[in-house]
Amino acid sequence: MQIQQALNAACSALGLERLDAQLLLLHALGRPQQDRAWLVAHDSDALDADTEMRYIHLTRRRAAGTPLAYLTGQREFYGLTLQVDARVLDPRPDTETLVDWALEHLSPQGSVLDLGTGSGAIALALKSQRPEALVGAVDASDEALAVARANAERLQLPVHFVQGHWLSGVRGPFDLIVSNPPYIAEDDPHLEQLGHEPRMALTAGVDGLDALRTIIAQAPAHLQPGGWLLLEHGWQQAQAVRDLLTQAGFAQVQSRRDLAGIERCSGGQWPG
Questions:
Q1: How far apart are CA 271 and CA 146, in angstroms?
Q2: Are 195 and 171 within 8 A, CB to CB?
Q3: Are residues 107 and 192 in the same domain?
Q4: In a 3-state reduction of DSSP, which class is residue 39?
Q5: Residue 117: pLDDT over 80
Q6: CA-CA-CA-CA torsion for 43, 46, 52, 54, nearest 10 degrees?
Q7: Structural domain of residue 33, as residue ranges?
Q8: Lowest pLDDT segment from 194-198, 204-208, 210-214
Q9: Could you tell me if 57 and 113 lie in one domain?
Q10: In this structure, how many other beta carbons lie within 10 angstroms of the beta carbon of residue 34?
Q11: Is residue 60 located within the same domain as residue 85?
Q12: Can you say how many angstroms the Cα of residue 173 is from the centroid of all Cα atoms in its chain?
């Protein structure tokens, strides 16, 4: 089978997006994901039998809903190549909105804590942009922390990782606390589409706000006066999160929109 034939088959027979088909083929070939132009230049090249079988297996798993990042073992996030697998949530591009906002409030030598760090995406992105800042990260899962620590070591970005449940047992105070916590309701019908990702990183109670409530309640005791709490949440949760922040005593409560125009993050400043 030729390269072009393999790509066409994955798109037409399995319904894959062209980009996904190309990235999976590059992975099967052992080539960098930046080599899409190589596929075009070599579209008439024949695949050997082993590569063809690897590619068929990968495309079938992708068609069954396995995230692309779990199949290739990596995800680009804020200019960093992260290693990811089923132990952690697949980082979404929308979360870069939270990083952008956090950088506005993180001074060159400030301190920041990332709650529910997963692969380490947010913490490592912040460290890459503020190399002199003190960056800490917490996760309840030791398996997730193993992934995050491996990413930090490979990228040579020193982050202090701690196993724990949100802010319980964490010392502070910090200039900034950020989090992309679970925020999907337990009975959300879209959960079935996310079945390959760790459920503890996705769901948070009946209305999806349990983790956000806990973080907002605990954060004031761990923030410097004037420090900021910035949170990612679901597309329909901005008003509820702003209300929780206001009720907890935060000032300058506001939201930020992602590239699609959706209110993706909300936050506020702790007075003092």
A1: 36
A2: no
A3: yes
A4: helix
A5: yes
A6: -70
A7: 3-64
A8: 194-198
A9: no
A10: 9
A11: no
A12: 25
